[in-house]
Write a structure and sequence with these properties.
The complex is a heterodimer.
Chain A: H1 2-29, H2 34-39, H3 45-55, H4 61-74, H5 87-122, H6 127-141, H7 144-158, H8 174-208, H9 211-218, H10 223-252, H11 255-260, H12 266-275, H13 279-307, H14 309-312
Helix pairs in contact in A: 1-13, 5-6, 5-8, 5-10, 6-8, 7-8, 8-10, 9-10, 10-13, 12-13
Chain B: E1 5-14, E2 17-27, E3 32-36, H1 43-51, E4 58-66, E5 69-70, H2 76-82, E6 87-90, H3 104-116, H4 120-133, H5 152-164, E7 170-174, H6 182-199, E8 202-207, H7 210-216, E9 219-224, E10 227-233, H8 234-240, H9 244-253, E11 272-281, E12 295-305, E13 310-314, H10 321-328, E14 336-341, E15 344-345, H11 351-360, E16 361-364, H12 378-383, H13 395-408, H14 425-437, E17 443-447, H15 455-472, E18 475-480, H16 483-489, E19 492-497, E20 500-506, H17 507-512, H18 517-525, H19 529-540
Parallel strand pairs in B: 3-8, 3-9, 6-7, 7-8, 13-18, 13-19, 16-17, 17-18
Antiparallel strand pairs in B: 1-2, 1-4, 4-5, 9-10, 11-12, 11-14, 14-15, 19-20
Classes of the chains: A mainly alpha, B alpha/beta.
Organism (chain B): Phyllobacterium pellucidum
Keywords (chain B): ATP-binding, Nucleotide-binding, Transport
GO molecular function (chain B): ATP binding; ATP hydrolysis activity
């Protein structure tokens, strides 16, 4: 187990390092001078020189990479050109929205999907199974922004229970902040829940066909007993894989929902930075997201080994 | 007194298709009743009817009475109480019958706690006792072991421990030893017999192997197409063979094909020559720098095979026989030593240089279905090895070769457009043989080629092997743990143990008077219908 964990962690670190090279290189590949690109066509030579100086563009490539890498390790991602504040401050502010949003959505999605999958799998081929999988199919097909608008219409406009958008900040009180995140998390979670429910159901059904399920039944376990005690844990590997992918998506891929609800999240930060050609912010946020996704994958890999004893002795 | 289990006129349909057509069967306490039949005869479905664990869409009629309970009328809750407590069941495939995520201790204790409500500590105590009883003492096999840390035979002992943990009145064993080698088979059968005698259990032993049945069962019921063909006391049924189907099964299980010597010019030297071959697998990594001891799978093996000769390679599972076969087929490279086909070394060649040699050596596997792509038609599957020819064959030449190969194995050439699932198990093995002989090879390596087949089909396939050997002069290397196959089809035999050839010689001599320990163990453990019947008649006086 220890070997497996150490090896996974080393691979994770190596991947982060490789990713940093790619992210850094992307900035270099952009044709022309980054400073000129950021400032646009009408910039004065002086302004360009000043920015070049600030970004250290007149230093050699390797030196700049190591300087940037050193900054990453010490938490210094440079200053945003458009906002004139340290990139780290920008990111921290946005993570305070995006991380809770992703976590709530993930918990919600799993909490909906697993019971539905267990219910469906235990009643395979019945009307209840067909109906719940039909609903899940619709859930997969509905675009989440449309569903988000529907939620706004019902809960914000008509019932006036929840805010239609915006984020008051955590200083406004936990409940006020959470209230702003409820509708976005539902809009994000339901399509994810639909996908997860379908995957979990088919994983459970695969396991229910295994010989050891018959052994457990011959032991005297009831159908639900077999489902919870034997099938669920064996079906967890594909379920964990999907949950890991969904978490990564929920952190970084929520830009449309952030726009619908006017939330200051990471997705919007990247989008705005790209349109404003604020490459320093783009570089910092992309690197953070890459590292987070690698971390999530590491956690998923380690949880495989906790679930499945056969993986523990793998080098 | 009413019997422990009494099945009367049991009828079963699955999805409207009749599977059982009026089965009668009874078992007394302490009795071992064998249920014999070929695949599809309804043996397993009879057992699952007693457990009420039938597949979806099954409808059962008739009567099953167990210890005063009407099984077919019992509720699911009542059945859950019976299963694992009064009725235990052991299955065929020990490698998949245990949950890979749970320790063996948890899996045995689960049933005990479920039925007795015992505390964790008490259940653990009973788990220790039953695992010790089935030959897995806790000192060597801690409760915290996972199934993947045990061998096939050890796993089957765990499955038996689960089934017998609460001393059931009836034990059902569905082909419990079919997936095990003969030595393990003998051990597991002995264990089942001991448990039955000690606890006065009834045992329903499902088997396709008459020799096993003759060895252990008190009484036997023979099924075919969901009907009882013959039933009675084992020695009487199997010695008298009054029923034609019983006679047919007995003859097929002891079938020895007629073999004519192939006409081969014997002047070219050996067809296959294996010299001082070893295969060593490096140990698995246990730390960043540490490795466990390397595994020596094949250890300094030398032998020669003449053209047209048929040789058996016998040994227990894990003795290295399949590794040796893979090296002969150039699918794996030896760590030491060399292998030559028709005088040319093949162990040091690259894939392109191997092509001419590959044409002369082909392989037939155990599972005919698993070795075919289900989406290809028979003709295409059989033609697969033809790419080994240096000059590509024309379409008409290919067609001609496919038809010849199919005819040689007894399949009508018009069947070339069928898919694998449209053939029966025996026909699929014929297709596998057709695929092996289409390049007109000099050597065919057959890895347990008949062990997945029913006895009557097995007899036909053995005939086919004998016929191809005589007509085409193909040499065989038969890898098997079944000495009956070795006896039926080979001239010479090599006994393998722990990676070494420990004994070799003419098949009839070695199998009659084995000299090595491994050879003796195999011969003693191999079930033999005549020997078993003679012994039991002797015991009965």
């Amino acid at each position: 187990m220890l070997n497996y964990a150490v090896k996974r962690i080393l691979i994770g670190l190596a991947t982060v390092l490789a990713a940093s090279i790619v992210v850094f290189a992307m900035l270099e590949i952009v044709p022309g001078d980054p400073a000129r690109l950021m400032l646009g066509m009408n910039a004065t030579e002086d302004a360009v020189h000043a920015l070049q100086e600030q970004m250290g563009l007149n230093q050699p490539l390797l030196a700049r990479y190591f300087h940037w890498l050193g900054g990453l390790l010490t938490g210094d991602l440079g200053r945003s050109y458009t906002y004139s504040v340290p990139v780290v401050d920008l990111i921290v502010e946005r993570v305070a929205v995006s991380l809770p949003l992703a976590l709530i959505s993930l918990v919600l999605s799993t909490a909906i999907a697993l019971p539905v999958a267990l219910y469906s799998a235990s009643r395979r081929g019945t009307v209840a199974d067909t109906a719940s999988m039909g609903v899940a199919q619709i859930g997969v097909a509905i675009p989440n922004f449309w569903f988000a608008l529907l939620l706004v219409y019902v809960f914000a406009v008509t019932l006036r229970l929840l805010p239609a958008g915006g984020f008051p900040g955590w200083n406004a009180g936990i409940w006020q902040a959470l209230k702003a995140l409820i509708l976005p998390s539902i809009a994000l979670a339901l399509p994810q829940a639909a996908i997860l429910a379908r995957v979990a159901r088919s994983a459970l059904l695969d396991v229910l066909g295994e010989d050891y399920i018959r052994t457990a039944r011959a032991k005297g376990l009831s159908r639900p007993g077999v489902l919870y005690r034997h099938a669920l844990r064996n079906a967890l590997i594909p379920i964990l894989t999907i949950v890991g992918l969904q978490f990564a998506f929920l952190l970084a891929g929520t830009i449309i929902i952030e726009n619908v609800f006017y939330l200051p999240g990471l997705g919007r930060l990247v989008f705005q930075a790209i349109t404003q050609r604020d490459l320093i912010v783009v570089e910092g946020v992309v690197m953070l997201l890459v590292a987070t996704v690698i971390l999530i994958n590491l956690v998923v890999d380690l949880s495989y080994a906790i679930v499945d004893p056969r993986l523990r002795n793998r080098p | 007194m009413a019997p422990l289990l009494n099945i009367k006129d049991l009828r079963l349909t699955i999805g409207g298709v009749p599977v059982l057509n009026g089965i009668d069967l009874a078992i007394e306490p302490g009795e071992i009743r064998a249920l014999v039949g070929e695949s599809g005869s309804g043996k397993s479905m009879t057992a699952l009817s007693v457990m009420k664990l039938l597949p979806n869409g099954a409808r059962a009629g008739g009567q099953i009475r167990f210890n005063g309970t009407d099984i077919l009328a019992a509720s699911e809750t009542e059945m859950c109480r019976l299963r694992g407590d009064d009725i235990g069941m052991v299955f065929q495939e020990p490698m998949t019958a245990l949950n890979p995520m749970k320790t063996i201790g948890e899996q045995v204790a689960e049933g005990i706690r479920l039925h007795t409500g015992a505390s964790r500590a008490v259940a653990e105590e009973r788990t220790r006792a039953i695992l010790d009883r089935v030959g897995l003492p806790v000192a060597k096999f801690p409760l915290g072991r996972y199934p993947h840390e045990l061998s096939g035979g050890q796993r089957q002992r765990v499955v038996i421990a689960i089934a017998c943990a609460l001393k059931p009145k009836l034990l059902i064993a569905d082909e419990p030893t079919t997936a095990l080698d003969v030595v393990l088979q003998a051990q597991i059968l002995q264990l089942l017999q001991d448990l039955v005698r000690d606890e006065k259990m009834g045992l329903l032993l499902i088997s396709h192997d008459l020799a096993v049945v003759a060895d252990v069962a008190d009484s036997v019921t023979i099924l075919r197409h969901g009907e009882v063909m013959d039933r009675g006391e084992t020695t009487q049924i199997l010695t008298e063979q009054a029923h034609p189907y019983t006679r047919q099964l007995a003859q097929a299980s002891m079938h020895v094909p007629d073999r004519s010597r192939p006409r081969i010019a014997q002047d070219d030297g050996p067809l296959l020559s294996v010299r001082n071959v070893a295969r060593i697998y490096p140990g698995t990594r246990t730390g960043l720098l540490a490795r466990s001891e390397p595994t020596i799978a094949v250890d300094d093996v030398s032998f020669e095979l003449e053209p047209g000769q048929s040789m058996a390679l016998v040994g227990r599972s894990g003795c290295g026989k399949s590794t040796l076969a893979r090296m002969v087929l150039a699918l794996d490279k030896p760590t030491h030593g060399d292998i030559a086909l028709s005088g040319r070394r093949i162990d040091n060649l690259g894939e392109a240089a191997l092509r001419p040699a590959r044409r002369h050596m082909q392989v037939v596997f155990q599972d005919p279905y698993g070795s075919f792509n289900p989406r290809h038609k028979a003709g295409r599957l059989v033609a697969e090895p033809l790419f080994l020819f240096d000059t590509p064959l024309s379409q008409s030449e290919t067609r001609e070769r496919i038809d010849t190969a199919l005819e040689r194995v007894g399949i009508a050439p018009k069947d070339r457009d069928k898919y694998p699932h449209e053939f029966s198990g025996g026909q699929r093995q014929r297709l596998a043989i057709a695929r092996a002989i289409i390049t007109e090879p000099k050597l065919v390596v057959a890895d347990e080629p008949v062990s997945a087949l029913d006895v009557s089909i097995r007899a036909q396939i053995l005939d086919l092997f004998a016929d191809l050997n005589g007509r085409l002069g193909i040499a065989y290397l038969f890898i098997t743990h079944d000495l009956a196959v070795a006896r039926a089809i080979t001239d010479s035999v090599m006994v393998m143990a722990d990676g070494r050839i420990v004994e070799r010689g003419r098949t009839d001599e070695v199998l009659r008077h084995p000299q090595s320990d491994a050879g003796r163990a195999l011969v003693d453990a191999s079930p033999d219908l005549h020997r078993s019947l003679a012994r039991r008649i002797g015991e009965q006086g």
